């Protein structure tokens, strides 16, 4: 049973979901770029820090069920996912190595008040909408208005096109909101000078937005989620290698040792990470607030030290910033740098907020002996109660039959016919773009098992354990039970 660490269960989708006859599948949004960026604006994108993400920001298809299931495991008390293997989360390391966004930079903040946003738009883009929608403009208008430059384009036209291109990346891929087609013009003010833009920590701003969106989506009445969901999805596929695809029913074997705590240590993955992104890993280990204008969210790195290759102790109580979730960008006249001055100063002094770290010598000692017993008491490793899990395990054992069936004819001994079950493919995937692709199998949409709904949702693993038992879900990842 969850202890005092879990404070919001009465307002959490994981509790409500058990009573729903129909699962809540979140409405997710991504606006992929139509094609690679023009070489004529490559220098501008590199200078501003968006070149790598521009090379991967297309062709992504979101798995709505996967994202919805992950949110049921997200705890806004700790900014971590609670799983049977412990706490884990998306970190600044994932942002840097998968998206190529700068982490070691200034906080993205400033004023969002302007006397005339239309004038700002015209000054920096050279064009203006008939109607600026509450400080936001339509990304469809950006796409249709700013056509790809050619060799005859002037330098100013290329600069304006680059700004419009980055706005589409921010509003459609990195930090999309629930409007689905609007991007705030405050970002445009950060793109006046590309060199200055390249000094901002766009990675921490993006992660703050994703944290905020995931926290909000844990409420049962929410139906939409924004933020960089492509990163959330990619992170899950790196860390959960038991996702498989085959011609038959999917087989999963999730154990405590099968969560990939340090997927980027895989030599096949390490080989395609540019050296420039591995120069200062201390950036990823900081326990500090992530600031993005009106958003402040804690990067609780001390709770997931195993993801950085360090031994996990019992973590201290998480920072409580509950009231900050009520603060919105609609407070137009707020001076955000002054409003969040304490947290911004913590970000600037982030190297003073690195937890004591002890390298992991062997996987079996990845956490102190007291850590997991503490987590099972105070955290929420399972969505179902222990009694319900044991009941379903008993039902599954009864249905499974004998482990070593014997032939029934009179003179038969033990059966020598081998049993086969589909397992994961072993071939690593390679990436031609800057985003890191996992060496584990590429994940395809999960397949439905034949039979009744209740039958096809009770999926088994080769170790005979009932792994996923929610009769209301077609996707087995939901509960990650053993």
From TrEMBL:
The lineage of its organism: Eukaryota, Viridiplantae, Streptophyta, Embryophyta, Tracheophyta. This is Aminotransferase-like plant mobile domain-containing protein. Residues 51-240, 256-357 form the Aminotransferase-like plant mobile domain. Residues 413-430 have a biased composition (Low complexity). Residues 393-411 have a biased composition (Basic and acidic residues). InterPro entries: AminoTfrase-like_pln_mobile, MAIN-like. Residues 393-460 are annotated as: Disordered. Pfam families: PMD. It comes from the Eukaryota. Residues 431-445 have a biased composition (Polar residues).
């Amino acid at each position: 049973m969850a202890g005092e660490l879990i404070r919001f269960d009465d307002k959490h989708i994981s509790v409500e979901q058990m009573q729903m006859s129909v699962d809540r599948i979140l409405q997710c949004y991504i606006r992929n770029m139509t094609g690679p960026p023009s070489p004529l604006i490559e220098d501008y994108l590199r200078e501003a820090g968006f070149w790598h993400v521009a090379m991967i920001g297309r062709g992504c298809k979101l798995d709505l069920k996967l994202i919805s299931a992950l949110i049921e495991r997200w705890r806004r008390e700790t900014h971590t996912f609670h799983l049977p293997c412990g706490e884990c989360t998306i970190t600044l390391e994932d942002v840097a190595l998968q998206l190529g966004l700068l982490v070691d930079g200034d906080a993205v903040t400033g004023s969002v008040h302007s006397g005339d946003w239309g004038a700002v738009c015209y000054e920096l883009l050279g064009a203006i909408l008939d109607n600026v929608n509450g400080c936001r403009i339509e990304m469809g208008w950006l796409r249709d208005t700013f056509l790809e430059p050619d060799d005859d384009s002037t330098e100013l036209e290329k600069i304006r096109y680059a700004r419009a291109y980055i706005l589409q990346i921010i509003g459609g891929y990195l930090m999309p909101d629930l409007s689905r087609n609007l991007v705030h013009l405050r970002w445009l003010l950060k793109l006046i000078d590309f060199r200055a833009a390249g000094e901002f920590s766009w990675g921490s701003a993006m992660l703050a937005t994703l944290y905020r969106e995931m926290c909000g989506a844990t409420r049962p009445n929410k139906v939409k989620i924004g933020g960089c969901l492509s990163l959330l999805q990619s992170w899950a596929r790196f860390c959960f290698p038991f996702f498989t695809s085959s011609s038959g029913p999917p087989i999963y074997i999730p154990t405590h040792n099968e969560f990939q705590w340090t997927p980027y240590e895989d030599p096949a993955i390490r080989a395609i990470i540019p050296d420039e992104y591995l120069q200062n890993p201390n950036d990823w280990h900081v326990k500090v607030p992530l600031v993005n204008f009106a958003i402040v969210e804690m990067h609780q790195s001390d709770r997931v030290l195993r993801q950085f290759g360090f031994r996990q102790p019992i973590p201290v109580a998480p920072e409580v910033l509950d009231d900050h979730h009520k603060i919105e960008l609609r407070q137009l006249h707020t001076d955000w740098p002054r409003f969040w001055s304490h947290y911004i100063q913590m970000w600037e002094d982030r190297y003073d907020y690195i937890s004591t770290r002890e390298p992991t010598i062997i996987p079996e000692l990845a956490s102190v002996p007291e850590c997991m017993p503490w987590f099972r008491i105070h955290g929420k490793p399972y969505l179902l109660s222990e009694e319900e899990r044991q009941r379903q395990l008993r039902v599954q054992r009864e249905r499974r039959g004998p482990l070593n069936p014997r032939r029934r004819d009179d003179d038969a001994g033990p059966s020598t016919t081998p049993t086969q079950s589909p397992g994961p493919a072993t071939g690593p995937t390679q990436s031609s773009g800057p985003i890191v692709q996992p060496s584990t199998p590429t994940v395809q949409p999960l397949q439905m098992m034949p039979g009744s709904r209740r039958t096809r949702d009770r999926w088994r693993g080769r170790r005979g354990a009932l792994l996923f038992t929610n009769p209301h879900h077609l996707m087995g990842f939901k509960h990650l039970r053993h």
